[in-house]
What does this fold into?
Amino acid sequence: MSHLHIPDGVLPLWLWGPGWGLALIAMLALWRVQRDRPGQRVAYEGALGALMLAAMALEVPLGPVEYHLTLAGPIGVLLGPAGAFQAAFIASALLAFIGHGGLTLIGLNTLLLGTAAALASFAYRLLARRWPGARALAGATLVGHTVSGTAWLLLVLAAARFRVHDLGLETGARLGVLAGLAVPLDAFAVAAETVVAFGMGQFLARVRPDLMPGAAVPEPRELEA
Amino acid sequence: MSVIGRIDLLANAGITPWHRASAITKLVLALGIVGAAVATRSLPLLVALQLVAWALVLSCRMPWRVVVAGASYPLFVATLFMAATWGGAWRPQLALLLRPVTAALVVLWLVGTTPSPDLFAPISRVLPRHLADGLFLTYRALFELLGRIERMARALRMRGAGAGPPARRFTTAGEGLATLVLHGFERSQRLYAVMLLRGYSGRICGCRHWAEVGRDDLWVGAAAAVVAAAIVGLGGRA
It folds into this structure.
């Protein structure tokens, strides 16, 4: 739900055009921030960006349906806001090339994934002061995906409203049904990403706590869990 | 093999004129068709672009499973959107179906006939250095990680990770994915060492034959002429 799987030609220009513009401005600003970072960092970002894409291919069975993860929260925490935003752009571009999202949607998808990642990174810095790694990572993911998921929902509703209005149809009931379907899905997606982030945090805190930025050393109780 | 793996194999092993044509002409043609499909309100033009897209994708000898996978996803999403906004005239609804399928087929043709280094080389010319390098490195790491993630998912299922309450399933999936973070970290260190050995000095140099225009580009030119004629002839009709 942090990613619009909408193909080209469905959303109007006034929605995806500014999305592209904002994403480019953000990319340029971030490029200036991290111009001098070491090449090893570029390789690490490439690896985690690929993990974001590969995780989207992983199907977590959930009864009759399957859920596809994005990992934007954990990747944001591990790479930091600038690196994660860049990874989000690359992931969105590659997804568009394989037919998931559309070329016109790269900007909006970068903003959605990048917002989830960047907010998770900032939230983690605050939460890691009080909580151990796994809980802080889960909390940060919850914050990032809640905001990004809400933005996703608003975008979908805005697109539907535009189309319904464009066709001269009645808006109220249709948008209500759409929102009624999308809100529980969105809430479920946020919960799923949060629990997965907790699992990732548990493992990393046990095996390689140094990969978690500024995390407290795991407590014995957490190690036993 | 995953769909993306099949497309990549086809892009590298294909022998049609489309595969031999330069990346830059195909990129320009694809962007032109997608742009026209997204921008136009003319239904006859959309139908013409749809026919061109099918002709492109069928003539590059793409496996029908990949074509179906590429066309069905946008069709599914567009149908959902159409159902949510059903009513009124049929023309806008038909246009909603044609636009995304045309765009998806053309992009499929582009990535199915162009090896990724050739495709990324012109794109990386307009991207900041780190982004361009990241694009190459991410794509390169993707296939290995896809294989690993498939094996990991299979192993988790065999050990009963698919059973139990959702919270446990997702926590286990998270722990499995964390092993891939470790793998990615270690791999990035090895990869950087290899990059240094190969003379990396802050920019990965992509291939240089993406702009070599040859005889096979005449086919791309012919397709572009058909698209241009369709835009001129049909663009004004409702």
Summary: The radius of gyration of chain A is 18 Å. Chain A touches chain B through 78 residues (CB under 8 Å). DSSP finds seven helices and two strands in chain A.
